[in-house]
Structures are given as structure tokens and as C-alpha cells.
Amino acid sequence: MSDLLSRVQSDLNSARRAHDGAATLLLGTIVSDIKNREIELRRVLVDDDVIDVLRRGIKRRRESIEMFTKGNRPDLATTEAAEVTLLERYLPALVAADEIRAAVRAAVRAAIAAGATNMGAIMGQVMPAFKGRAEGGQISAMVKEEMAGNG
Questions:
Q1: pTM of whole model > 0.90?
Q2: pLDDT tens sequence across 47-106
Q3: Greatest Cα-to-Cα distance within the chain, rounded to the nearest angstrom
Q4: Coil, strand, or helix at residue 119?
Q5: Gap between the Cα atoms of 104 and 143, Å rounded
């Protein structure tokens, strides 16, 4: 079992003992998502796999926040935001934006020098270096900016 999964399960048990219904529901759901991913992959998950599950959960909740905000439901958006904050505690520290931008610039320059203008190829070079430590949307936006600036 991964160390991160053990930590989530330990926090789930603490939330149950403290009768914290919201945290119990959220962490129970995440543990369930992790177990489902384990079944899907047919292997024991490592921390990187658990981080992927957490990131998907955070992404879903951020999408919900956007929809609830558009639907004029600030109460539900606030609940989802609190869940995002709780889940983000389990993620590794994010990389500074300037470090990501430097890597993106280097990848864009290399791609342009090679005659490629395919954003997917550039993303394929940059994403593995920041897996689990940066959001894909942030990297994608930087790639688009750099390609527009060098185009």
C-alpha cells in the first residue's frame, strides 16, 4: 500500500472518530476512488497513482465550483472549494511558475528549431517533468503563450 493512501485512510479514521461528517464523506469517496483505480489497473497503487486520483477529484470539484457559481449556488460552490482545499493537502508542493515557464520556453524553442509547431509534442516533452507537481491546464496555457510569442 502506498504511503499516501495510508495517510488518507488514517485521516479518514480520524475524521470518523471526530464525527466530522463532511471530511468522512470526502475522504471515504477518495479512498473508494483509489480502490476502484487499483481494481482498474489490476495492481497495487504507488503514490504517483494516488496523486493522479486526487488530482482527478480536485479537477471534478473545480468544475463543479464553476457550474455552481454559474448556477448562482454559492453555498454549494463553497462546499466544493472546502473539499478542494482538503484534498490539496495530500499533493506534493507545486512547482514555481517561473520554473515551469523556463522548461516550456526551452521545449518550444527546441520544437521550433526542429520545424515542429505541434502543441501536443511540446506538451509531451514538458508534462513528464512536472507530473504530479503542476497542473496540465497551467502548462498548456504557458505552451500556448510561448508558441504565440515565438510564432
A1: no
A2: 989 999 999 999 999 999 999 999 999 999 999 999 999 999 999 888 888 999 999 988
A3: 60
A4: helix
A5: 6
Overall residue count recorded for the chain in this entry: 151
d(CA 102, CA 93): 18
Q: Can you read off the three cell numbers belonging to residue 115?
A: 520545424
* Secondary structure E strands in the chain: none
Tell me how far CA of residue 2 lies from CA of 28, 38, 39, 44, 149, in angstroms. Answer: 16, 11, 15, 8, 42
Look-up: residue for cell 482538503? Answer: 86
Phi/psi region, residue 42 (left: phi>0; alpha: psi -120 to 50; beta: rest), is left
CA torsion, points 82, 21, 13, 49, in degrees to nearest 10? -40
Task: Please give the Cα distance from 21 to 111 (Å, whole number).
Answer: 50
Cα–Cα distance measured from residue 81 to residue 144, given in angstroms and rounded to the nearest whole number: 28
C-alpha–C-alpha distance, residues 140 and 147, integer Å? 11
